[in-house]
Amino acid sequence: MKNLKVIFISILLFSAISCSDFLDQIDLDELTSDSVFKTETDMTFALSTLYNYLPGGDILQEMVPYFWTDDALHRNINSQGRLGSDYQWLTIAQTGNVYVLDDFYRYDRIADINFFLEALENAEYSSEELRNRHGAEARFIRALIYERMVLAYGDVPLITSIIEPEDLPGRTSRQEVFDFVISELTEVSTQLPVSYPASEYGRITRGAAFALLSRAYLNALGWHSNSSELYAGAERACAQIVNSEQYSLAPGIEGFVQQFTAPGDQSTETVLSNNYVPELRVQSLARTFAQKGSWRGPEAGFGNNQSRPGYTSFLIDEIQTINGLFPKDDPIYDPAKPTANRDPRMAVSVVMPGDSLPAKGNPEEFYIYEPHPAVGTNTDDITRPSNPSGYSFRKYIDYSLSALDRGDADFKIIRYSEVLLMYAEALAGQDRNADALAYLDQVRQRVGMPAYADIGLPTVSRGTTGNQMIDAILLERRYEFMGEGPQRWFDIWRYRLGDQVITPVFGIPESTELYGDLDGPKFKPDNGAYDRVWQDRNYLLPIRQDILDANPSLTQNPGW
Fold first, then answer.
1. Which of 154, 168, 221 is closest to 556 using CA atoms?
2. Is the pLDDT of residue 107 over 90?
3. Which among 403, 224, 236 is positioned nearest to 303, based on CA atoms?
4. Residue 75 gets which letter from DSSP?
5. How far apart are CA 420 and CA 426, in angstroms?
6. Cβ(219)–Cβ(490) under 8 Å?
7. Cβ of 423: how many Cβ atoms within 10 Å?
8. What are the residue ranges of helices labelled H in 245-289?
9. What does the pLDDT look like over 186-198, one tens digit per residue?
10. Residues 289, 393: contact at Cβ < 8 Å?
């Protein structure tokens, strides 16, 4: 919502009823709310505040789970930690590091939404239709939070109304919370509009409800007892979106590029986004991702870009050539020129060694990104405080910004390409491979990659589900959503691929001549600090100790 506004009294009241930790609440009798939450205007402003709870363009939110996958890692800079990418989760839970494991455990936000929904019933509204729509938007955000908690923590307390400070609810079964999420999203989909006027762009739509519904069904595959029901539910939800004809892929690699800059903000591909609002929030990924030696913007008030996250060699070495083959299988692949003849999404998503970038001192000049410690002496050296793997993130970096920490692009939470790939996955899960292939190939052909209908499905050896079609879909998701969000986390957790893909991490080759060497030795980032060892307990995150201390009715997840 580009015209989104918030009144400070709403923020102050929401702050008063929220809890920094679970059940750390202030008695509602202390609130002086006689003059607020009474009118349609009050509720409109308060709802706009709730939109802040959508996953946002900050590395501490939607990006964190990506660093728990085989595709990426995050270096400790400014004492922020490795964001769990070294798998030291128990230590994090015991010390209460709020940056890592609790963005999914959000009862402060649940409390705010429940307060809003109860106030909504008695507020003065000009139409019941608008009241119902406002309620549906708030319920969608609550369902999104619960869907993440079900995936990350399993059984969690299901709280749908205001509770007293002395109430200490225990954990509700995962199935019951999941059923609540499905029921809520199904119901609100009937109350949300298909689209809005341009002035209201960014509000939650019916398509967003169906897309989240599909995610919820598929994300439950790792624990639910009825996979047939889940695939069928995801298929129904995706069919609603596709058949609505409200969305389409932005054409060509140019359309793909636009998804991560301001010109793509009102793309036909956007199903759900967290919108840039100048008065309220910016999208800060650009500075966090950008290379230390690159341009910061003419008004930058900081010394360096941060360049904390990096891709692993596991991902880079498996990005297909333009022929639709893995580099190891394609004679055209040249390890001395690893960026040549690759999937076009690679150049949009990855900064590779040897790439030219606008220089820190003058954007009209260029410098060469050289992360190898034996090549050059610039600040991108992987042994210094920058990207630890040598393969750097590129999406959302816009060198035309006045300062890279003032990002003005909407953060895309769900794009239509994900809907198509979820649709394909739901169909493949029901052995309807021919139908699934059509949707998978739509995503590939948009960026100029050959259709699998023409060249045959790939043989995926790293992280196989046992279903070749689903393996191909998950591989496509790796390419499509590189450096973008938690999709790879969803995939590993729902197909329980952890023991296959979570291993010690490697970065760029040690060779100074073959930047794309597939066979020779590779650097271990931070001298082996990311030597991950998978344990099945990781399929559920540990609950922070301070949360357990605050509510004795809660219990820790198994194995932690």
1. 154
2. yes
3. 403
4. -
5. 10
6. yes
7. 25
8. 252-258, 285-289
9. 999 999 999 999 9
10. yes
